[in-house]
Specification:
Length: 199
């Protein structure tokens, strides 16, 4: 998986970059070209080009008049079948991973939501609870939906507002809700989260 002196030998034997229709060869050529400054430090021992192909194949890279078909020469030494098997296994695995990533990216993102039960406490028993609830429900935000509510006795004639809401976790936080609810300071003394459940 690392460029070697064999790659350098083949690279130097090629007079010009391969044409665009041979995109795999062109990609290899550009990849090896990027190692121009480190080519001496790449692993392996540089040999004559003919030593990398099949046995008894003459090195014809210097002879311009030879009309031998390039397809007859295996520059990468196909005699090592184990390397080819590993190469195809890796390629198959990469294709599988690419397909998996593609399918995964097409799935709609799951929106994390939570159900909250809030306790909103008034200042005293003279606080207008209908107005207090109206103020709380007037808070609007993307990812916030108000639910049912009820008044729960606390003691000494005082009742607290218990109200449910559903929030999208990425858009609405409990700190933001507390800040906006307690901003109605004429009616609201404090706010607590009585229950917090992931949906």
């Amino acid at each position: 998986y690392v460029p070697s002196q064999a790659d350098i030998a083949v690279f130097e034997a090629i007079a010009a970059p391969p044409p665009a229709e041979l995109f795999h060869a062109l990609r290899w050529y550009n990849h090896i070209k990027s190692y121009e400054k480190q080519k001496a430090s790449l692993p392996g021992v540089k040999k004559a080009l003919s030593k990398y192909g099949p046995a008894d194949v003459e090195d014809t890279t210097g002879a311009a008049t030879d009309s031998k078909d390039d397809d007859d020469i295996d520059l990468f030494g196909s005699d090592d079948e184990e390397v080819l098997v590993i190469f195809w296994k890796v390629k198959k695995q990469r294709n599988f991973l690419a397909q998996y990533e593609s399918k995964k990216s097409k799935k709609p993102a799951v929106v994390a939501k939570s159900s909250l039960l809030l306790d909103v406490k008034p200042w005293d028993d003279e606080t207008d609870m209908a107005k207090l609830e109206e103020c709380v429900r007037s808070i609007q935000a993307d990812g916030l939906v108000w639910g049912s509510s009820k008044l729960v006795p606390v003691g000494y004639g005082i009742k607290k507002l218990q109200i449910q809401c559903v929030v999208e976790d990425d858009k609405v936080g409990t700190d933001m809700l507390e800040e906006r609810i307690t901003a109605f300071e004429d009616y609201v003394q404090s706010m607590d989260v009585a229950a917090f459940n992931k949906i």
